[in-house]
């Protein structure tokens, strides 16, 4: 869920769940048309445009 570059910098590859019940360290699953939190079931659906 992280990418480390040559300089030692860290980049998150997935979004962390913003819900108060989850917080930092709980990542959202990345599907083609949505992002989903398996812990609190928060879902972001993207438009297909």
UniProtKB/TrEMBL annotation:
Keywords: Ribonucleoprotein, Ribosomal protein, Zinc. Residues 1-43 form the Small ribosomal subunit protein eS31 domain. GO terms for molecular function: structural constituent of ribosome. Gene3D superfamilies: 6.20.50.150. GO terms for cellular component: ribonucleoprotein complex; ribosome. Pfam families: Ribosomal_S27. InterPro entries: Ribosomal_eS31 (IPR002906), Ribosomal_eS31_euk-type_sf (IPR038582), Ribosomal_zn-bd (IPR011332). GO terms for biological process: translation. SUPFAM superfamilies: Zn-binding ribosomal proteins (SSF57829). This is Small ribosomal subunit protein eS31 domain-containing protein. It comes from Cordyceps confragosa.
């Amino acid at each position: 869920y992280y990418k480390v570059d040559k300089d030692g910098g860290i980049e998150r590859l997935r979004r962390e769940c913003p819900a108060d019940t989850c917080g930092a360290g709980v990542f959202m699953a990345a599907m083609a048309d949505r992002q989903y939190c398996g812990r609190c079931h928060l879902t972001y659906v993207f438009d297909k445009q």
